[in-house]
Amino acid sequence: MTEGVDMIARPVLEVSDLNVRFPASRDWLGRPNSHVHAVNGVSLQVRRGGSLGIVGESGCGKSTLAQAIIGLAPYEKGRVAIAGQDLQAAQGKQKRELRQKMQIVFQDPQSSLDRRLPVWRLISEPLHIRGGHSSAELHAKAEQLAAAVGLRPEHLDRLPHEFSGGQRQRIAIARAMSTDPDLMVLDEPTSALDVSVQAQIVNLLLKLQRERGLTYLLISHDVALVRHFCDDVAVMYLGQIVESGPADAVLGNPRHPYTQTLLASAPSFETPLPTLAEVRIGELPNNRKLPTGCFYRERCSKAAGGCEAPQGLRRLDDGARQARCHLAQG
Amino acid sequence: MMTATVQSRGQALAIQNLSLEFPTFSGAIKALDNVSINVAKAEIVGIVGESGCGKSVTTMAATGLLPKGRYRITGGSVRLFGHSTLTMDESQLQDVRGKMVSTIFQEPMNALNPTIRIGKQLTDVIMRHEEASLSDARRIARDILADMLIGEPERVMKQYPFELSGGMRQRVLIAMAFSCNPGLIIADEPTTALDVTVQAVILRLIQNRARRTGTSVIFISHNVAVVSQLCDRLYVMYAGRIVEHGATRTVLDAPQHPYTQALLRCLPERVAPKQELEAITGAVPNLMQPPAGCYFQPRCKEAIDLCRSRSPQLAGAEGREVACWRRGVGLEIAEQGSRP
Ligand SMILES: Nc1ncnc2c1ncn2[C@@H]1O[C@H](COP(=O)(O)OP(=O)(O)OP(=O)(O)O)[C@@H](O)[C@H]1O
Ligand code: SF4
Ligand SMILES: [Mg+2]
């Protein structure tokens, strides 16, 4: 019995103290002597059937984090565990199996699908790679998945260029579901679509989650979408999580100064255009040489004594969320 | 002719019943059908609609920016500060662009010359249009960059476009657009590629400067929330037609046209988390063979027989019109029309 409880309680995805850096320049022996620090000590968990949104601006490390999680970007420090198993430590067949437990849907359905393959092959490709299925089985499976994402049977033999952006994204979703993954990573899945089509895809993803208990990690710059779509949210700045917790708490009543600025700038019907003082102009600092103390200090309107010390992610008094700012506590 | 001048006083741009098509081998793409847009002096006007609805073509046609010989105007007129742009030749148009109207596009990299320093590009534009000396032009450039919150204008003027971030480049272009004091600025999705914090700053900068100098602005966007924060009035386009227009708050708080209503309902912002969004079923019509009647009719939940045979015209009160057989004046006409 306890074993069963453990299975349920264990998060599908556990990331701890993950650091990803890329060589930015090399010395005469070809050894890297400076780095781009893309992800700087990220820890997060996603529970089965839940959804975590990662929000932040371009260059903050969201996509690198997603790639490290699915095993496309190597990391030197930290750990990624899927269903309790360490991805980077796994070898050979076990590693391939672990990778199949995660699937990703990209922003641009145009370039993420092989243009020469008919839809049924595209959808069943991950199963084909895994092996052990006859062509007829793959076709039958593709047909089921196509129906689940709202494609019609006659679509199965067509090529991807015959489809609109929204339909191509449906194909990408069906394909990602084909291996019954434990985790689906959605990297800006609707940003390239018109809003009316975006709504169709958002509805589809939420419906699939309700019906099949899918687990999502959503990467997005769209705060309104994350608020609508996710249970939990983590806000990233310069490769760190600066605030995380339940989406309604973090996005409804942000406590970290960066989250506050991000939300004040997000376009909205309900609020007027923010003043220049509220948004403050600033560029993301260079991530080759990380700042000392709080990473947000230079742009922060509340910066005061204490900010020159490194800031840890600390649990706030509401018990539900964490923030990386000594002033957020009060 | 007297009346035209009188009518256009106080008016920055008057597009009237503009229809335009792109001839292709497989037939003509009817990109614009009967589009009318008015922009008063010092007014900020938004055009919203989904990809391909004709937002860019409308303003590019009005300012002579469409590729010559590739399109056909099939009706209508355009008056820019009283001058008819549709009948101008290229040199007259060039004169108009820059003196009367400047356009800012989505991707600032394409609009800047990558091999010339920012300072020279700015002063060239200023000298061409303002007949200023080089030292005056440099001073104007410096002031306007500072006004765009560019920290060290002197340093930025010595840099090349690629050395600046996307947000900086876009601010340089806005500076360039304002530098010759045009009466009208057309901003075509100027912030779509930028982060929200940068976007908010840029919208503010455009708004502040336009208000201070009495410049009119046309702001084109697919993002209704952005338009709601910036614009005094807005036009909603669908498949090359204007379907609704009015004061921004009125249109957004009480949308009338079924398309505008659906467009607002499919946004997550006004819906409880995880609740189903109201997606618009189907797809936009093929502009080579648009449907008879109302172009929205194949996707419209309220369509009646009349919608399938006759196109609804914009109708309503001054400054607030809707093109739909099931609304306001359209409804009256529909009822009269159906009487024997
Ligand atoms: N040079 C051209 N040749 C042929 N068709 C064109 C040309 N330019 C635009 N079109 C067509 O005219 C229609 C209106 O296009 P337009 O670019 O104005 O749309 P838009 O509303 O600006 O869209 P977006 O939001 O994607 O910028 C579209 O069907 C488009 O494909
Ligand atoms: S005219 Fe008819 S089809 Fe068009 S929007 Fe109105 S009700 Fe719908
Ligand atoms: Mg456009």
Shape of chain A: globular
Q: Largest sheet of chain A, described in full?
A: 8 strands, mixed
- Judging by the overall fold, what is the CATH architecture of chain A? 3-Layer(aba) Sandwich
Amino- and carboxy-terminal Cα gap of chain B:
40 Å
β-strand amount of chain A: 15-25%
Low-pLDDT segments of chain B: 1-8
Structural classification of chain A = alpha/beta
List the helices and strands and how they pair.
The complex is a heterodimer of chains A (330) and B (340).
Chain A: H1 2-9, E1 13-26, E2 32-46, E3 51-55, H2 62-69, E4 77-82, E5 85-86, H3 92-100, E6 102-105, H4 109-112, H5 119-130, H6 135-148, H7 165-177, E7 183-187, H8 195-212, E8 216-220, H9 223-229, E9 232-237, E10 240-246, H10 247-252, H11 257-265, H12 276-279, E11 314-315, E12 322-323
Helix pairs in contact in A: 5-6, 5-7, 6-7, 7-8
Chain B: H1 2-8, E1 11-24, E2 27-40, E3 44-48, H2 55-62, E4 72-80, E5 83-84, H3 90-99, E6 101-104, H4 108-111, H5 118-130, H6 134-147, H7 153-157, H8 166-179, E7 184-188, H9 196-213, E8 216-221, H10 224-230, E9 233-238, E10 241-247, H11 248-253, H12 258-265, H13 305-309, E11 315-317, E12 320-322, H14 328-338
Parallel strand pairs in B: 3-8, 3-9, 6-7, 7-8
Antiparallel strand pairs in B: 1-2, 1-4, 4-5, 9-10, 10-12, 11-12
Helix pairs in contact in B: 5-6, 5-8, 6-8, 8-9
The complex binds adenosine-5'-triphosphate, iron/sulfur cluster and magnesium ion.
